[in-house]
TrEMBL record:
PANTHER family: INTEGRASE PROTEIN, TRANSPOSASE INSF FOR INSERTION SEQUENCE IS3B-RELATED. SUPFAM superfamilies: Homeodomain-like, Ribonuclease H-like. This is Integrase catalytic region. InterPro entries: Homeodomain-like_sf (IPR009057), Integrase_cat-core (IPR001584), RNaseH-like_sf (IPR012337), RNaseH_sf (IPR036397), Transpos_IS3 (IPR048020), Transposase_8 (IPR002514), Transposase_IS3/IS150/IS904 (IPR050900). Residues 232-408 form the Integrase catalytic domain.
Length: 426
């Protein structure tokens, strides 16, 4: 009678531990068998009977351990099938979750009027790079349907919406400090050139932002003062049907008042119509003609010539412009004299408009000028900003002094109505 050999039974944890060590450590079968105190042949049989190869299946051994310990009665094939089923369910759930987020973004974009996916994908890719360092930039960009080149092109331009608004507001505050009543469209033109359209966005969006931040200015009423009741000769209107064709073709002159504490000052201006540059000015405490003559002398000096025979000087019928001293200076430099035929602001619209721009955008401050010196400093700053920084709609959004000095081509856009007119600046 043959005696049966008793076969040793090993717990599942021993089998899995030996198989794991064999695949993970790269040790030989003999070394692993000796480590676990089992026969080499037994380990070989375990390896043959176990279809799980961690290297080929790319599954962590912990997954196999978990399923083997929980479902010891299942075969290896059943374990893998259940794992596949669980993964498919998890994938379907993640797809639904991803679609839910996409739908939420679509609704937010529609109701809030913003473009999240279009403007924030680059920031998202930048954030994901730190979370998934092993994933290529091309793969991350592909999640949003973008190319890798677009990411590197735009990454330096990306700022948050809060940073963008803060940057715009800071610049608006600066230019409102330079020119307290400069219009919002002018600010848009200036900041679009300085910051770029990716910061300012479109004009309407820019104006909407300024409205939300409280930067829209109320309109102010204008005041008119002119005394044309004098004995001097009144000249005809020479620019009734004439457009300014070049620099120093037509000059317009006017006088406006500037309030100071307890008194009033008078600002005498001479403006080149073609470029809208203020080429002569004088601030005085009286309306005496000698101050008006000083403004004209500055204009002649700015024009840089004694003979200005191609120039037409146009003004209202104020006594300062019709007096002998002023007329003699014009004739000395061969400048033709033109005046309005009746008191109508449209007959001297460019000069009137220049007064309005300076006063409504720059000189109507909450606090009045303290004295003459204080007012003169403010007006010097206002005229410098007007000539060298402020774009003008009537010359194609160019800078006046750039046009006057032939650095930029002029572009007359003002409407011709009666005499020399211009559109409302905004």
């Amino acid at each position: 009678m043959t005696r049966k050999t008793k076969v040793a039974k090993f717990p599942l944890s021993v089998k899995l531990g030996a198989i794991r060590d064999y695949y993970s450590d790269g040790s030989s079968i003999t070394a692993v068998a000796r480590k676990w105190n089992i026969v080499r042949t037994t380990l070989s049989n375990w390896l043959k009977s176990c279809p799980v190869d961690a290297k080929e299946l790319s599954l962590p051994m912990e997954v196999i351990d978990q399923y083997r310990m929980k479902h010891a009665e299942l075969t290896n094939e059943e374990i893998l099938q259940k794992r596949i089923s669980d993964l498919e369910q998890a994938l379907a759930y993640e797809k639904m979750r991803s679609r839910a987020f996409e739908k939420m973004i679509e609704i937010a974009e529609k109701e809030e009027g913003i473009s999240i996916l279009k403007k924030r994908w680059c920031q998202t890719v930048e954030a994901l790079r730190s979370e998934y360092p092993d994933v290529t930039v091309e793969t991350l960009c592909g999640l949003f349907g973008r190319k890798r080149q677009w990411f590197y092109k735009n990454r330096g331009k990306v700022i948050s919406e809060r940073q963008r608004r803060k940057l715009i507001c800071a610049n608006v505050e600066y230019y409102r400090w330079l020119c307290p009543r400069i219009g919002c469209v002018k600010l848009y033109i200036i900041l679009r050139a300085e910051l770029g359209e990716e910061i300012t966005h479109g004009r309407d969006a820019f104006l909407h932002l300024l409205a939300e931040e409280g930067y829209i200015l109320p309109k102010l009423k204008r005041r008119y003062t002119t005394d044309s009741d004098h004995p001097y000769h009144k000249y005809p209107n020479l620019i009734q049907s004439v457009d300014a064709k070049y620099v120093n073709h037509i000059w317009v002159a006017d006088i406006t008042y500037i309030w100071i504490v307890g008194d009033v000052l008078y600002l005498h201006l001479v403006t080149d119509v073609y470029s809208h540059a203020i080429i002569g000015w004088c601030l005085s405490e009286t309306l005496e003609a000698e101050n008006t003559v000083k403004a004209l002398e500055m204009a002649i000096q700015t024009a840089g010539g004694d003979n200005l025979c191609g120039t037409i000087h146009h003004s209202d019928r104020g006594s300062q412009y019709a007096c002998y001293a002023y007329v003699d200076l014009l004739r000395k430099h061969h400048i033709q004299i033109s005046m309005t035929e009746r008191y109508n602001p449209t007959d001297n619209a460019v000069a009137e408009r220049q007064n309005g721009i300076l006063k409504t955008e720059k000189l109507y401050l909450e606090d009045m000028f303290l004295n003459y010196e204080h007012a003169k400093l403010g007006i010097e700053k206002a005229i410098a900003f007007h000539n060298y920084q402020r774009p003008h709609m009537s010359i194609g959004m160019k800078i006046p002094m750039n046009v006057y000095r032939y650095e930029e081509p002029g572009k007359n856009l003002w409407k011709k109505t009666n005499g020399c007119s211009c559109p409302d600046e905004k």
